Amino acid sequence: MNAWRTTLAAGCATALLGLGGCASVSALFGKPEAEPAGVVVTPTEPVYRLEIEAPGKLRGLLATYLDLSRYQNAPAGDEITRAEIDRLMSAAPAQVRSLLETEGYFAPEVQVSRVGSATLNGTEPAPASPAAAQASAPAPAPTHPHRHQVPRLRLQVQPGPRAVVDRFEFQATGPLQEAAETGDLAARVLIAQVRNEWQLPPEWAFRQSDWSSAKNTALAKLRADGYPAATWGATSARVDEASHSVALELSADSGALYRLGSLDIEGLKRYDASTVNNLWTLQSGTPYREADLLDFQDRLQKAGLFEGASVVLDAAPDTAQAAPVEVRVRELTLQQATFGVGVSANTGPRLTAEHIHRQPFGWQWIAKNTLELGSKLKSWSGELTSYPLEGLHRNLIAAHVERLEAVKEVRDSASLRMGRSQDTPRIERLTFAEITHSKLDTASDRGTITSNSDALSGSYHWIYRDLDSVLLPTDGQTLSTQTAVGYALSRKDTSGTDHNGPFARLYGRYTLYRPLGAAWYGTARVEAGQVITRRSVGIPDTLLFRAGGDDSVRGYAYRSLGPESDGALLSGRVLLTGSAEVARPISAQHPSVWWAAFVDAGNAADSWQHLRPVLGYGLGLRWRSPVGPLRVDMAYGDDVQAWRMHLSVGIAF
Q: Where are the chain's structural domains?
């Protein structure tokens, strides 16, 4: 036998021919495919017993797909002769080899033999009753148990060593290779990426399914990065049975490099085409990248104007140098109202109402009003956001009024801001000017302490995301920063703070997500903040810091951690918290339900010298729902020596 042979086509063809040799027992042995109407089909029972001796998963493969295994159960009454069983036995070794080749075993030893007979329990018709004989319609005759003898067969399989990949070669032909030879960096990088990301590298065990998957992935890479017409020119998997190795060789015909042309937009009714065009950041002639189109599609869906969006390249061969981009959108309704009932571990039960108008007074703006009524939090938020402008910018005007009751305090606050945002695939920017008012009444040993102050500030918020999924991240990182400078105005009150003055505010939050192997996942977070000003300047409470709660230090009530004075809990001018968490699915049957263990630490204080971190730790459950993770945690606050339940939905950036 020639030691080398090509298995890509021959192995698959043999397996398919072997598996498809018999459509049914009836077809194999000359029985009709279907019984005439009115004839009762009797149950199946074994016509011989097959014992398969093979390692673990291979035994299941053979039991499922081998003809000799599948046809041991036949309709009662079908007579299978010794010659017919012998025919199945003689065909079995070739079928076994074809099946095992798909798993990477190319030199198995196969034996099929008769080893006697087996006694099985079964059923046989019992005499029909007179009542049944007189019935107008035929009915199945009753049965009674009996025992019978069937041939006993044994299939013994020694698969031998599994073949491993010995070498892998990939080459491109056509415009991609021509561009690489002329020094085009993008072409060279793409060829290198296909080679480096190959999913069946040397020293890996060979399996037909892995081979097919690796080819599909490599071709998808070429099609996604500029060459949507790419096809395989030739692929081969050559097996050396003597060394149990496989040599993989692939050649891809890239086809033309496609370049982007104009947008072909359908589905707009109320909105102008500029609404879509302003979200398109690429110029005509730019090489096609599937990721660019997906980013554009994502921006359309997040614009707040469309219920759905689809972006597809027209890959007709004659348009390669200026391929049209087909954009299909479905507009959201002009107005939308949402009502809800919920509960938060931070602020208790609540009722919410939200109204959105996507063209108030005919303006190219989106108006959003949100009202929340709860036992501890009552608030109204109003926001006007422009339609997308050039450069992915938007103008905004927003106002917020709130009354919050938490930990022996009542805070009334209001703010008005005007600014501009920019949302790119990985970075969000927000620049705004804001007027802030805050009045805080805090219970103390000396009575109620009132702090009443205002501030005028300019702020810049910056968020960076590099995640495998924004909704359900398991790998990546986020960084959120806030900077502000302003001037505070404080009216004289019982707190004794009545100085005005400038201030600066800094805040940052970094979160890291990492898979830890064997279905384990880790999350680490650190946040820090500081207000820089003279100690005598009164800063609005909304610009200061507290710790404690769901996304801070679990095990402690919301806003319950901060500096104290005369028994009163106040807000601090510095903040430092951190968290570490490990999680994994509860079982393979429920991959979206995880359990988690975590430890949190941190606090807020008047200065870094007075910062005293406290510890919280516990266990939790995670449901990775389509709208984000639902988290239920039981946390123990080490400083208060008490357990607290925390409930939250979504990811905090």
A: 4-30+42-124+145-158, 164-253, 260-331, 336-387, 388-649
Q: Give the Cα separation of 358 and 334 in Å (integer).
A: 5
Q: Is the pLDDT of residue 651 over 80?
A: no
Q: What's the rounded mean pLDDT across residues 41-52?
A: 70
Confidence band for 34, pLDDT divided at 50, 70 and 90: very low
Residue for token digits 């996304």? 551
Looking up tokens 């430092």, which residue turns up? Answer: 576
Residue 473 in tokens: 């991240």
Q: Nearest 5 degrees, angle CA 135-CA 139-CA 144?
A: 115
Q: What is the DSSP string of 40-84?
A: PPPPEEESSEEEEE--HHHHHHHHHH-HHHHTTEEETT----HHH
Q: Which CATH fold would you assign to the domain 260-331? A: Ubiquitin-like (UB roll) (3.10.20)
Q: Write down the pTM of the prediction.
A: 0.74
**How big is the CA angle at 68 (ends 65 and 71), to the nearest 5 degrees?**
85
H/E element, 13: helix 8-19
Q: How far is CA 122 from the centre of its chain?
A: 50
Compute the distance between CA of residue 490 and CA of residue 507 in angstroms, rounded to an integer: 23
Res. 33: pLDDT tops 60: no
Please list, in sequence order, all residues whose beta carbon lies within 8 angstroms of the beta carbon of residue 494, skipping any fewer than 6 positions away: 447, 448, 449, 450
What is the assigned CATH class of domain 164-253? alpha beta
pLDDT of residue 134: 38
Confidence check: pLDDT of 23 > 60: no
Closest CA to 453 of 396, 420, 491, 481: 491
| Right CATH for 388-649 from 2.40.160.50, 2.40.50.180, 2.60.40.2080, 3.60.15.10 | 2.40.160.50
Rounded Cα distance, 640 and 51, in Å: 65
Q: How far apart are CA 396 and CA 341, in angstroms?
A: 28
Q: Is the pLDDT of residue 404 over 50?
A: yes
